[in-house]
């Protein structure tokens, strides 16, 4: 592909791919092959690399937006923040925009992503039309749903870089309006909330009004909210949650709200959902002096990495006589009909609130029953799920071990027929992992595209923290 332009910014894609391949060749045989990137949205600790990483510095842009075909050609390391900046001027957005600005398109496809359009558009990889992948053999192949590399196309989602790295992806786009009008609907019974999710997913409407986007928050089993949004061009006064106001708190005090489309897409990023409270950023005094440019998920993530490295807060807790804490940072998919059961178990067993609720269903682009199978994250076609996200830590009780709470969550999710995302800590034994995450198919694709196994394996990445 020759150099192309988007909004008059040249992108030398061929040169960037050439540098990537040279950096791959420079990694000594036997050393782990990793990306040389400064930011990450992973919560899995990893062993320190011994060899230089892959040069992906030139793979961060949008190559082209086609407003007629409603597609975009995007480099693999392009963040959704930059991708949205390129598509919104055309009145378009990706079919699914994960909630944090610095998640990359390649990362969301190989590591999964989700957001409030997922009840109708599935997951980000389901909008990919084709992708160029640097394989473990050092080759660039173009994978499509059909054809010679269809096996790689199907196995790439949730492979976490164990099968290769996407250098270019062509994705579908959808129209978006200037504003999103929101209704915050309160539920005091989780069964009623689940019934509403089923109805909205089936009809894409609620109380006679269209629903284009949908997610929710549970503050307790007796207080949960669905946030139902409709795209609109009506010029309405819009709220601003990038300043003193905090978005998730508004769900309890407002039944209706309006955000610009841009602010809606990043509504969770300013306070990292509610996790900015851990840094004091939600305190009114500190919030006034904390620069707005630092109210971003990637800043908070860097602070977390510093704590993991130096353990300052953990040492302070020990000096105060506080128990050690277990990190519980997870997103799990539970079948809709078992969601109330899981949420009550979670509230009783873990006790962490709030939790995020995001319904999803595999996309059916050609009508009912046509959803594609994705073997490394085998959600069932036609099944409604709810992604439940919870991010924090809990005290390690006397007699328990670090990881026990996460292991209990893994067991419960499996018992209920669900799946767990692998961006954070995982504790499965290899046999269970292979059964849940398509181990046999992964190995067949691995042997074809990475015959020398130069890329770290999926289990090694997700569980062994390699």
Automatic annotation (TrEMBL):
Transmembrane segments: none annotated. InterPro entries: Diminuto-like, FAD-bd_PCMH, FAD-bd_PCMH-like_sf, FAD-bd_PCMH_sub2, FAD-linked_Oxase-like_C, Oxid_FAD_bind_N. Pfam families: FAD_binding_4. PROSITE patterns: FAD_PCMH (PS51387). The keyword Disulfide bond does not apply. The keyword Membrane applies. This is Delta(24)-sterol reductase. It comes from Micromonospora peucetia. The lineage of its organism: Bacteria, Bacillati, Actinomycetota, Actinomycetes, Micromonosporales.
């Amino acid at each position: 592909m020759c150099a192309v332009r988007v909004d008059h910014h040249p992108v030398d894609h061929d040169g960037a791919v050439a540098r990537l391949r040279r950096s791959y060749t420079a990694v000594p045989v036997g050393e782990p092959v990793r990306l040389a990137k400064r930011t990450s949205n992973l919560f899995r600790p990893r062993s320190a690399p011994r060899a230089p990483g892959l040069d992906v510095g030139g793979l961060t842009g949008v190559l082209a937006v086609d407003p007629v075909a409603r597609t975009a050609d995007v480099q693999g390391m392009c963040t959704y923040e930059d991708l949205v900046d390129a598509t919104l001027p055309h009145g378009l957005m990706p079919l699914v925009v994960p909630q944090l600005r610095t998640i990359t398109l390649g990362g969301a496809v190989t590591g999964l992503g989700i957001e409030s359009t997922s009840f109708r558009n599935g997951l980000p990889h389901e909008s990919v039309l084709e992708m160029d992948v640097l394989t473990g053999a050092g080759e660039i192949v173009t994978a499509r749903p059909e054809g010679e590399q269809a096996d790689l196309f199907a196995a790439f989602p949730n492979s976490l870089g164990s099968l290769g790295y996407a250098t270019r992806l062509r994705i579908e786009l959808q129209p978006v309006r200037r504003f999103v009008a929101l209704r915050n609907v309160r539920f005091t019974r989780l069964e009623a909330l689940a019934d509403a999710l089923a109805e909205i997913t089936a009809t894409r409407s609620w109380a006679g009004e269209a629903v284009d986007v949908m997610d929710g928050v549970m503050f307790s089993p007796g207080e949960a909210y669905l946030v139902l949004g409709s795209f609109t061009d009506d010029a309405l006064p819009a709220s601003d949650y990038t300043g003193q106001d905090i978005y998730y708190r508004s769900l309890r005090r407002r039944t209706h709200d309006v955000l610009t489309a841009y602010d809606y897409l990043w509504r969770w990023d300013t306070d990292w959902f509610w996790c900015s409270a851990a840094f004091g950023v939600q305190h009114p005094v500190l919030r006034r002096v904390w620069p707005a440019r630092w109210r971003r998920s990637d800043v908070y993530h860097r602070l977390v990495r510093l704590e993991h490295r130096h353990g300052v807060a953990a040492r302070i807790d020990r000096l105060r006589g506080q128990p050690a804490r277990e990190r519980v940072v997870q997103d799990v998919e539970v079948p809709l009909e078992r969601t109330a059961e899981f949420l009550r178990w979670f509230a009783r067993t873990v006790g962490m609130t709030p939790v995020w609720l995001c319904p999803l269903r595999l996309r059916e682009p050609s009508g009912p029953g046509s959803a594609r199978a994705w073997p490394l994250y085998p959600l069932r076609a036609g099944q409604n799920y709810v992604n439940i996200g919870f991010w924090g830590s809990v005290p390690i009780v006397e007699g328990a071990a670090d990881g026990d709470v996460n292991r209990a969550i893994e067991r419960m999710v499996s018992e209920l027929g669900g799946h767990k995302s692998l961006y954070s800590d995982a504790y499965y034994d290899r046999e269970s992992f292979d059964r849940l995450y398509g181990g046999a198919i992964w190995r067949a694709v691995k042997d074809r595209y990475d015959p020398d196994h130069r890329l770290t394996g999926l289990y090694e990445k997700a569980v062994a923290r390699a």
